[in-house]
Amino acid sequence: MLIRPQTTAPAQAPMLEPLAHGGELAAARRMFPAAPEPFIDLSTGINPQPYPLPALRSEIFARLPDRASIRALAAVAAAAYGAPSADHVAPAPGTQILLPHVAALVPPGRAAILRTTYAEHARAVTLAGHDVNEVADADGLAHADLAIVVNPNNPDGRVVDKATLLRIAKDLRLRDGILVVDESFADVAHGASLAGEVDRDNIVVLRSFGKFYGLAGLRLGFALAAPELINRIEAVLGPWAVAGPAIEIGKAALGDNEWRQQTLNRLAMDAKRLDGLLADAGLAVVGGTSLYRLAESSNATECFNRLGRAGILVRRFAEQPQWLRFGLPADETAWQRLSDALGLN
Amino acid sequence: MLIRPQTTAPAQAPMLEPLAHGGELAAARRMFPAAPEPFIDLSTGINPQPYPLPALRSEIFARLPDRASIRALAAVAAAAYGAPSADHVAPAPGTQILLPHVAALVPPGRAAILRTTYAEHARAVTLAGHDVNEVADADGLAHADLAIVVNPNNPDGRVVDKATLLRIAKDLRLRDGILVVDESFADVAHGASLAGEVDRDNIVVLRSFGKFYGLAGLRLGFALAAPELINRIEAVLGPWAVAGPAIEIGKAALGDNEWRQQTLNRLAMDAKRLDGLLADAGLAVVGGTSLYRLAESSNATECFNRLGRAGILVRRFAEQPQWLRFGLPADETAWQRLSDALGLN
């Protein structure tokens, strides 16, 4: 689904604080002190039904993770994501912490980011010394030293097709540029992934573990790239970047194809159910993935506040005040409370 | 205890691979395939009796850590380490991952590292673009742009006193230089810590959580510095650098003064017991802290191999082949096996 960003909105408007990121329940509780508890957090794109935690030996917490276990995790991740080999995978404590490192793979120059998207990319790229240019369509990426695409995009779910991305990567190579594809939500859009193409030497794919597997607190993510780039990323992360519990849980979850398939089916059904609710409430669903849905309404602010007073936090956007992003309710109680808060009962 | 590094040894000799770092049991098992199991790992300076793991709510793994919980951890860490306030503390997924970021706080220039010490500092400083100079005494640090001291030092336990460090920091300030004090083992040498001095604007103290608390797999460490430097470090780490389990366990452990005092007492007794064993075995104890002891012997290689064949891994040093570093045995079985392997029974 392709959503054109509204060109009338300022490209770099400050985000609303303190709700700039999803997941800030503490701030929501201050904002809506009379809301019923428990607060329901629909402000993230995190699967609300996590991968079941395996029993963890205490040794996993006590010992330094050894290289063999990190490489075993890389091998499982390569298979799950479709990367050519474990040598094409750098495990990290989340994709977030990778952003400045990946941006520093090319010397400071011109960075282009396909807008409107996750604000942390612009911040990380600026930290790495690049000039940032937010572009409205994929063709605008080809003239940069560092091009960044979130695919599928957050929040609108826009997908840039593989052929277009590979053409951009080819153009970028002419000036030793790198294409970064943030595939944080690509678990639910597997066909769009460039994971299988990273042996080309100027593509870096970022994969988030915590969103699809519902374990964002674990802090686990991956860079997929040609081995030379992986070596540079791993050098700056150092030998013990990933925690023992993340290694163990990551290996179990990424190797569990049955859970993945069941979860893909469930998320698709739940996204459809959510679309139905939002439509019934008069909110136009204009994009998203099966981990989150983007709704548009001229009454978005009023709706945000109504939901907040009912103890439900959704994601709003300073740049696009007509948008609200909804994550999936975790259980029937949450579905019911959302339905009630939307005035549907 | 002050150990003069041997000036005849090359300052930057390559470390032995694959045993360059402590904790590589998998490599040890390949090296000594007939050794009895379980292998006993004495190759690290990690407390072998960890802080008892509290029960962890599954939400800790599922949700993105929010800013309030990170700042609560920073406040507990500030109190435990003696930093002026939570604003002087940046929590991180281990101190290791902080090293290149801290090195990048000053523009590429001359870095001086007090030798002989933990090899990762030279590597991280080089990554940040500095020329590295390993110096033999603390006075050699004062003419750098970035000066690095591990205090107490690993592996020899050398302690540089606070007055000397503060004088160096003052000299460094003349050229906008920064003093980095790696206090990874300072829990057992509290009087030497510069944590209370970090409001001076050019001192960064690094504190490791995992070593003293015996939870190295958790990946938790801290930078302590003036708030302006903390803000720069936190900007590059991003908003979710530390995992939920690390936040929860860190808060509980760092706030537990009773456990800390009991552990200080136990470690001191165990270090004394280890010194006795090593002396009985004809190994001269030449330094260390109560988390590890450094022994010297002309038969160090033979001793390393004898211990390895008995299923006990200790730490050796390519630059100082006469040295062996011993961590503390975890329990009576391990003490007995060490004693046997040293030929004492």
Relevant terms:
homodimer, 345 residues, alpha/beta, Aspartate Aminotransferase, domain 2, 7-stranded mixed β-sheet, 11 helices, 34% helix
Q: How would you describe this structure to a colleague?
A:
- 2 copies of one chain form a homodimer.
- By secondary structure, the first copy, chain A, is of the alpha/beta class.
- Chain A has 2 domains: 25-49 and 259-341, Alpha-Beta Complex (Aspartate Aminotransferase, domain 1); 59-255, 3-Layer(aba) Sandwich (Aspartate Aminotransferase, domain 2), CATH 3.40.640.10.
- Chain A has 11 helices and 13 strands.
- Chain A has helices spanning 25-31, 58-62, 67-81, 99-103, 120-127, 162-173, 227-237, 244-254, 257-280, 300-309, 332-341, and strands at residues 40-41, 89-92, 110-114, 131-135, 146-150, 178-182, 203-208, 221-224, 284-289, 292-296, 312-313, 315-316, 323-327.
- In chain A, the strands form 3 sheets. Chain A has a 7-stranded mixed β-sheet with strand order 2-8-7-6-5-3-4, with helices on both faces.
- In chain A, α3 (67-81) packs parallel to α8 (244-254).
- The first copy, chain A, is globular, with a radius of gyration of 20 Å.
- The first copy, chain A, starts with 24 loop residues before the first helix and ends with a helix.
- At the A-B interface, α2, α5, α7 and α8 of A face α2, α5, α7 and α8 of B.
